[in-house]
Each structure stands twice: as C-alpha cells, then as structure tokens.
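Page header: ASSEMBLY MODEL / two components / 602 residues total.
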Amino acid sequence: MMRYLAGRLAGMIPLLFGITLICFFVIHLAPGDPAQFLASMNPKFSETAHEKFVKMYGLDKPIYEQYWIWLKRVAVLDFGDSFTPDGKSVTTKIVERLPVTIWLNVAGMALIFLIALPLGVLSAYKKNSIFDKSVTVFVFIGFAVPTFWLALLCMYYFGVIKGWLPISGLTSYNFDSMSFGGKVADILWHGFLPVFLSVFGGLAGLSRYARNSMLEVLGEEYIISARARGIPERKVVFRHALKNALLPVVTIIGLSVPGLIGGSVIFESIFGIAGMGQLFYQSVMSRDYPVVMGILVIGAVLTLIGNLISDISYALVDPRIRYGRK
Amino acid sequence: MAGSRLLKKAKGSYLLYSGLIIVVFFIVLAVFAPLIATHDPTAINFDEVFLPPSSVHFFGTDELGRDVFSRCVYGSRISLFVGFVAVGISLAIGVLLGLLAGYIGGITDLIIMRIVDIMLCFPSFFLILAVIAFLSPSVFNVMAIIGLTGWMGVTRLIRAEVLSVRTRDYITAARVQGVSGVKIMLKHILPNVMTPVFVTATLGIAGAILTESSLSFLGLGVQPPTPSWGNILTAGKDNIMFAWWLSMFPGLAIFITVMGYNLLGEGLRDVLDPKN
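Prediction written out in full:
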C-alpha cells in the first residue's frame, strides 16, 4: 500500500506540471500584453502596479523563463499579491474564503449520500416497480434542471412570496451579537437553500450510479448461488449484495470534486455567499490575474487529491484490490 | 437485416420518441424563429417595462420593455447553435485522438492519454470561465471553449473501442492486403466504433446547452442585446423581487430542451445497445 501510494504521488508530479503549464499559457492567451490589458480595463491600475505586474511575471523575459520564475514561486505556494485595492496576498485571500465553500460542499455531499444511496439501492431492489419508475423520472428531471434556475424559483417562492428563508448571504446583519446557538441556527437558516439546491443537483447522478451498481451485483453468480441455497431474499439483497454494490459508489466522492468546485461559482454568486467560487467569479470579472491563477492551480490540486482519495478508498474497502503487489 | 431489427426496437422506445419530439420541436422553433416570434426580440419600448404575461406579451416584458416570448424563441437559436458546434468540436478532437491513441499505441498512446488525464484534472467550469474572461465573451468563444474542454470522454471511448476492434480478423486481413493505416482507421475501424459516440454526442449537446446557459447567466457567455436563455435569466435574477416571468420561462425552455436531448440519448443507448 505504501509503495502504491508513493507511486501515485510521484505520478501526480507530471500531472501537476502539465496543469501549471496550461494555467500559465491560459494567462498568456490573452492577446497583447496582459499588464497593458489590465491597465486599459482598470483606471485604478497605477504605474507602480504595472511595474509590479511586469516584475512579478517577468514579462520582459522570454516566455519559458517567465514560466520557470512563476513555477518556482508556486512551488512554495506564493501566488503573488492580488490586484484589488486591498493588496492582500493571493494565499491569504483564498484561505479566507475556502472554509465557507468547504462547509457548504461537505454538508451537501453528506446529504447527497444519505439520500441517494437508499434511493438507488431500493429502486434496484424493486426494479420496474412504481417506486423505481418514479425515481427514474426524478433522475431525468434532476439531470435536466439548470440548478441556477431552480435556485431563482426557490428564492422567489420561499424568499419573496413566503418570506420563510433569506435570499442572500450566509449570516444575518446582527450575527456578531448572537449567542453561539443563535449563530449556528442563523447559519443553518441561511445555508438551507444553497445546500438543498446542491443536494438536488447531485442526487440524480449518484442515485442512478447506486442503482446501476446494485443491479450489476444482483446479477452476479454468488447472488444466484446465495438464492439457490435458500437464503431469504431480504438477506441476500441487504447482506450479500449491498456491501459489494456500495464499494464503487463510495469511491465516487473523490471524483465529484471538480463538479462541486464548478457549482460553487454559480451558487455563491446567486446567494451572495463569500466563498471561493464567488472570489473566483469576482477575480475573473475584475481581471485579477494572480487570484485567478492561484484558484485554478488550487482547484486542480484539489481534484488530483480527490482522484487519489477515490483510488485509495477503493483499495481500502475492496479486499480484492491490492495495489503494489504482483 | 440488422436495420429492420433496430427499427423494430426503436418503435417500442418511448424514451427515444419523447426525446425526438422535444428536440425536433426546438429545432423547428429555432429555424422558423422570425415567423414564430410575435415581436422584434431586441426592440426596446420604455412604455411597456416589466409587463406581466398577457395575450399580447405571452411571457411578459423585461426591464427594457422587450418581449420575453420573442427573446426566448430567438434564444433557442443560440442554444442549438452552441450545442451542435461545441459537440462537433469535441467529437472531431476526441475521435481523432482516440483513433490515434488506440490504433498506433505505444508512445503516442501514452502522450495522448496523459493529456487526457491532465485535462480531466481541471475543474473545467473554472477553466472555461477564466479563458472566456481573458478572451472576452462571445458566442464563438463560448462554443470553442466548451468544445475544447469536452473531448476527453470521447477520446477514452473511441480508444477503448479501437483496442477491442483492432485485433479482429478483418482488420488483420486489411493490413495483410497492404491497406494503409489511415485508410484502415477511417474505413474499417471508425464505422465500427461510432455507435457509442452517437449516444455520447447527444448527451453532450445537453451538457453544452447547460454550460452555455450557465455562462450567459454569469454574464460571460452570449452578450445582450442578443437574446439567450441564460442572459434572460440574469435579468430574472436582478429583478426577482417583482418579475417572476423573467426567471420562469427561459429556465423552463432550458429544462425542456436539455431533457429532450437526454431522453433522446438514453433512447438511442437502449436501441443501439446489442445487449438489450
């Protein structure tokens, strides 16, 4: 296992290298000098900022040298300073925003698993029943609904018409004066819609996946033989089949990272939540290159880690898979 | 014949039919948009701002007094165009690289599959946002970037299919006869691996339409005054407090269209899958 892990980590290095290469060339895709482009877009972009930018990326040097300079800085997690007036370092800005995004995504992900697994497993168990068919209809709806549209409709109904839920932000204006319990309740109250919508968006894919996995296992020979031995159907399904069906499903957590990161841009900008997605959106709109680059690289690293976790958890939960041994 | 068997299977597939009806409906809507729209989609009329749906303005009017129904009708053109062109680009790249990786193998295969791995590691929506912001938003850039970030699945699919086909006797026979590698790939391998690609392409159109509308919604896709479902929804978000119709109808159009392509794709999968 350790050898496998070491191998996988070593394998991530060329991937990371390729990712930074693409990120770097993306910034150079912009026609013309990015520094001048920035200056023309933003009247606040002063002469000193221009010099800082040129120096930071070494724009007067040949491109391969620029990449090398940038890579050396990124290797020690130095993404430079933001171009916004506050002038904070990119790392500080991202670290400020990351917890909210992670909180919302972890809450969403946990709920998705809690709901989608039973849905998928039961609809496979009762294949072609009314229940299975309604889950299938729900899955088709879930795949096709643009979540940002659903978010607008929910905001209108629950926020504007009914006035039950807040439509913006993650805390009330008097959050600081609340008791601890009040703070928790306030965050839950504000987080309800964003989490509900991300759950809705993720539910369809996972329950479908769980259903297919369960159906596949139910067709295996050891299930047939268990039935042939006269083991009650209930026990066959929930003891013998379930465990094996859930293995591949659990590992999908790691693979869902890019989708979650992408989705957070939309949710956070709709609900006015100050997370990493919103930061990325704002930085893209204000052409804050260092922040954009930083988030791109960090997003890719998170995805790589997600892939790794998914492979490792596969090996951990499935005794048939033993990496690193011939 | 295989053809009549497929036709028989297709007859019973209500997924395929309902999908086809929706898809054809929106294609007709896009093609005949000028005949169907009741108003000029970009005509501004400050006397008729934020009118709720009525018999004159079926879907109401927006903040500039434009007719939302006509804007939605014209918006179907953008969705269709972006969906087809973006998927066309992904297919072209994906099929080419998949064929090369699968047929040539060796170092070519290794390099191509590494590129696929790298591309899959990007949170692609972030990459799309960044590139579009740097290149300035336009329909062309949106199509190109959705296409350029969506080919990896097709490459993997084609490569796997090629690997399973290339050792068959008829390929060996062609090679023994001295048929060139390019000709073998295009004439003998490609037609035999295209079936799953049809399904992927249909589902891909649905995905591209969703991505375009998300981008336009965020202001990084199709720019006003050109109507697209996504950018009408932006106005819906800004005026959510009093103009629900701006959010309701374009979103419904996206939902139904995407549903149509998904149903069609799943229907095709059922019909084309020899295991069923």
